[in-house]
Amino acid sequence: MSTVRLDPPTATMISLIGSLADNKSALGRRYGEWAVSAPTIESAVAAAAMAQDELGHARSTYPVLAKLGVERSEEPGLDAGHPMFVIAEELPDWASVIAANLVVDGVLTTFVATARESSIEPLAHRARKILQEEGAHRVHAEAWARRIARAGGSDLELLVRRVDEMWAQAARWPGPDSDPGYCEAIAAGMVSGGPLAIRDRVRDWLYPQVGGVSLDEPTDWSDWDPQRRQ
Predict the structure, then answer these.
(1) What is the pLDDT of residues 89-136, one digit of tens each?
(2) Distances in whole angstroms, Cα of residue 44 to Cα of each of 5, 7, 39, 89
(3) I need a surface site. Which of 159, 171, 187, 202 has the fewest CB within 10 A?
(4) How far apart are the C-alpha atoms of 10 and 104, rounded to whole Å?
(5) β-pair partners for 2
(6) Do residues 124 and 118 touch, judged by C-beta distance below 8 A?
(7) Domain segments of the chain: what residues?
(8) Which residues 6+ apart lie within 8 Å of 152 measured at CB?
(9) Fold for domain 2-75+84-209?
(10) pTM summary value
């Protein structure tokens, strides 16, 4: 990946867009791995469809980087890119799939929503298309959250634990709210909301979906890497 000299908001957006695509690619692979192992035929079909969507989102998002002076000639392979650690490898159980759908997909989609009127025209175009397709993912996540909540017991306990595990990393993905590059990107109309607003919107949605989750606000940013967004 080659770059030119970048101002802070452009560097921030390159980091966000590249990481968005990396995580979309990883999500697609994780969903796809469960297309033959889901607990019902319907959920297996949904996992396959979501996998196809996410891989398509990744494939179409990488080229947006060219508008910002970065060339990525092809989609990274299995071991390339820097997805969140929680989705970098196969998910161990169905609760993890639903937690990824709720939390990781939720955070990424909420970021995408802040870019639907972006001054970076290719990003705005991609954001609007992604949001159309993500509606079905949200319906899937909510339906399974309700189903597991009704079951209660160990199933619900596992989902709560998986959601909190996913949140511990996904909540850090947007970065600290005081990040100067992000603030300048908002001022330039590249996105409409910052990290804290993203986390708050996701929290407001998640609390009614899965009772008992923590969803704490990250406080220690001393080891945060703005390039890997981890």
Answers:
(1) 999 999 999 999 999 999 999 999 999 999 999 999 999 999 999 999
(2) 46, 44, 7, 19
(3) 187
(4) 24
(5) 71
(6) yes
(7) 2-75+84-209
(8) none
(9) Ferritin (1.20.1260)
(10) 0.93
